[in-house]
């Protein structure tokens, strides 16, 4: 899902975004996909980016102004992507190599029913279950209200993960995993190894060569 460095640079420049701009990202849901945009920019070395807590629903609830037209940049931006060593998208080969690594942990953002395998995957030809030895933290458990970050819950959930452990986040398609990644970074801003499995379960679950676990019916 993540474009190349060259494509990302070109398309961000076409939006009129400059290297020293401050970006604020939001979506229609409070936060469902805004964190994905945040992680994509962080993975490309851009640090001046934040997610608006509660997104558009919170903005509208506060009766703040809106417009009905799309912004049209008057000129190309000068954004330059410089891939980060801290924030990285990884593939199934990388994740499989980390399954038995005691210095790495994989966290799945899907619902408990999909994680355990009690519900079939909504995508055709995708197996049920989860990546072996991964743990489950549904992304919505870290939110309150209209997609707002629950800092107390985030702190409680992630406080025990030490600074030396590499953290890999997965979900259904690489979107809500980024909510967990951003939440983790909020309380561990000095952490130097935050990874998102880009294809996530839609990639892992359709590859019969990759191992799976399921806990439903055990």
Provide structural commentary.
With 218 residues, the protein is α/β, with parallel strands linked by helices. It has a domain at 87-204: 3-Layer(aba) Sandwich (Oxidized Rhodanese, domain 1). The chain is 28% helix and 14% strand. The protein contains eight helices and nine strands. It has helices spanning 5-14, 34-43, 55-61, 92-97, 112-116, 151-158, 177-187, 200-204; strands at residues 23-25, 49-51, 87-90, 104-108, 135-136, 143-144, 148-149, 166-170, 194-197. The strands form three sheets. Strands 3-9-8-4-5 form a five-stranded parallel beta sheet. The protein has a two-stranded parallel sheet with strand order 1-2. The protein has a two-stranded antiparallel sheet with strand order 6-7. Helix 2 crosses helix 7.
What is the first-to-last residue Cα distance?
A: 34 Å
SSE succession:
HEHEHEHEHEEEHEHEH
What oligomeric assembly is this protein in? single chain
Major β-sheet profile: 5 strands, parallel
């Amino acid at each position: 899902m993540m474009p190349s460095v060259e494509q990302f640079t070109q398309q961000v420049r076409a939006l009129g975004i400059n290297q020293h701009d401050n970006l604020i990202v939001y979506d229609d849901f409070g936060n469902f996909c805004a964190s994905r945009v945040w992680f994509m920019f962080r993975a490309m070395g851009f640090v001046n980016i934040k997610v608006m807590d509660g997104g558009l629903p919170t903005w509208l609830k506060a009766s703040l102004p809106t417009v009905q037209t799309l912004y049209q940049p008057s000129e190309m931006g000068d954004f330059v992507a410089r891939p980060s060593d801290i924030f990285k998208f990884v593939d199934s080969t990388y994740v499989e190599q980390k399954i038995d690594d005691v210095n790495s942990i994989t966290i799945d953002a899907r619902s408990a029913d999909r994680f355990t395998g009690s519900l079939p995957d909504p995508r055709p030809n995708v197996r049920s279950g989860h990546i072996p030895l991964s743990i489950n933290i549904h992304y919505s458990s870290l939110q309150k209200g209209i997609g707002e970050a629950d800092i107390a819950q985030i702190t409680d959930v992630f406080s025990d993960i030490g600074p030396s452990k590499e953290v890999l986040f997965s979900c259904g398609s690489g979107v809500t995993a980024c909510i967990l990644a951003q939440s983790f970074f909020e309380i561990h801003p000095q952490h130097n190894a935050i990874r998102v499995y880009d294809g996530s379960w839609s990639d892992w679950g359709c590859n019969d060569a990759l191992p799976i676990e399921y806990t439903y019916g055990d």
